[in-house]
Amino acid sequence: MSSKSKIALVTGGSRGLGKDMALSIAKKGIDVILTYRTNKEEAEDTVRQIESGGQKASSLALDMNRFSSLDQFVKEVIHILGTKWNTNNFDFLVNNAGMGATVPFLEVTEELFTEFLNVHFKGIYFLTQKLVPLINENGRIINISTGTTRFSNPGYSVYASMKGAIEVFTKYLAKELGTKGIGANVVAPGPIETDFNSGAIRGNPQMKERLSSLSPLNRVGAANDIGGVVAFLCTEEARWINGQRIEVSGGINV
User: Which residues form the domain of 135?
Assistant: First the structure.
């Protein structure tokens, strides 16, 4: 491949939705740096899959709950860009890394709230701030939200509140980074059958059936329902989509 391939950084790209995003982006002829929290083997397997398709890829460790580690992570991004791509910049930032827990509002602890705050809002806010100087003109930021900012699902009060903050934040990114030629959008998946949140949907037939019944298409989503939409937002065809929330939920609760 040409060394002029564009480069995407996908956080949480070793498994689930993030893995499909990374693979789908690579199929568009874009190189990928993906991050993992603990499972280096899964991340390296995803890298191998991308490279077998002809694109360059690399993986880096990133724990969004360790706020103090963000500066070191940015240094590692700069290092890998220089050594593997001979550049100082990349094009697309996909803020996908996350954590899940289904906890009723009355049972939420301050500790859990703080962890969700760090992983889903504070960490993304400041990681993006630190990475913007590395993003090329005409680059994009894609933040992953959730259908539960539009409709309520009991037990998701913390998760959805942080994602709601991300959706507002994305509008401000679009407004304030426009002068740099950088666009920003939100992709909001509906219920997806993956191992996210300890496989809450995959491992619970009753929940899966209930959520399927809420969709006009009578099913929950799969990881490969989402990745292609994120990849599309990294293409030239999507250049005029900016400041938008794109829900990819099969029309649940429409």
Answer: 7-248
